[in-house]
Amino acid sequence: RPAVIFIGKTDGNIDIWDLLDRSHEPSMTVNVTSAAVTSMQFHASANRQLLAVGDDQGTVHVMEVPRILRRAANNEKTFTQTFFDREVKRVEYGQRRVEERKAELQSKSEGKGGDDSKDELSPAEKAAKEEELLELTFRAMEEAFKEEMGLTEKPKEES
Prior knowledge:
Blueprint: E1 4-8, E2 13-18, E3 28-31, E4 37-44, E5 49-55, E6 60-64, H1 67-70, H2 76-112, H3 115-119, H4 123-149
Antiparallel strand pairs: 1-2, 2-3, 4-5, 5-6
């Protein structure tokens, strides 16, 4: 299935992700061995699919893949492609916002200080100013979040 991913882990488990079902956590975790999983190989036949799992002790474990994990739903490939396209756009948007925020913070910090004083700052002073600016930004974001969640007390207006 296009939306199912098997991940072998060092604790001997295999995490099975069905991205159309859950994208934030594995749909299933199977304990295969007590040693680290080092390899996996699928073998499909007409009526079943097998998964051979190798561990770091040299043991091969063979298990049958359940039908629900091997039979694709209608249009699953299209849905999966749409999911990945949407995730790529989300990551690109996040990266763009980080760059925009950096530019905003840079322009604000340049606007506050004089041009000649900026050139004469030592690396430690620049780091301190940057840390202070980040702290102010964090406080502003925290305050906006609290307001959005209704966690701040609004001052009562007198009439």
